[in-house]
Amino acid sequence: MSANPPARSRSRRKPEPIERISADALILADGAQVADGKLYILGGGWDVIRLGSPAEPIPVFALAFRIVIPWNLTNEDIAVEIQIVDPDGATLLGDDPPVVRTKVGRPPNLESGVSQALPFAMTFQNFPFPKSGQYFVRLREGERDLNQYRFSVVFLNNPAT
After folding, report:
1. Which of 34, 51, 71, 85 has the fewest CB atoms within 10 Å, measured from its CB?
2. CA distances from residue 25 to 44, 90, 118 in whole angstroms, order as listed
3. Where are the domains of the chain?
4. Category of 113 on φ-ψ map: left (φ > 0), alpha (ψ -120 to 50) or beta
């Protein structure tokens, strides 16, 4: 019996280049920040917010996400809107939701066609959730959804939830 396993056939096909902006990561966390091009996430990945009542806002939570910029859209202005949507479909961040605006250049040593990923973190404090049910965070570029993250809000002191 050979000590080396048999060689596997490996495809040498290159990954297809992306043509549109995408968001390959979106997560809720207790805290998040960006440093040196990396996301640092504390207490991330939860999907239920438990509050005493609708009058009690969540003290703090963070959104951590990563936007992928394709080669063909470098050196272009990019705007990604953040929305938090309630169970009835209403947006909770008002008529003027936060927008991440950026422009990504092409480093001289970047191979042609290679996309670039940009991490972002946003913190919300004393954020009210008016009703129990399923909410979601949505990232949008123009009219196109890039990603969404579903979560639930439960009120512990409300027998109807």
Report:
1. 34
2. 12, 23, 10
3. 22-155
4. left
**pLDDT tens digits for range 111-136:** 888 899 999 999 999 999 999 999 99
The answer as to CATH 2.20.130.10 being correct for domain 22-155 is no
Q: What angle do CA 34, 35, 37 make, to 5 degrees?
A: 85
Radius of gyration for the chain, computed over Cα atoms and rounded to the nearest angstrom: 20
Structure tokens at 101: 């605006």
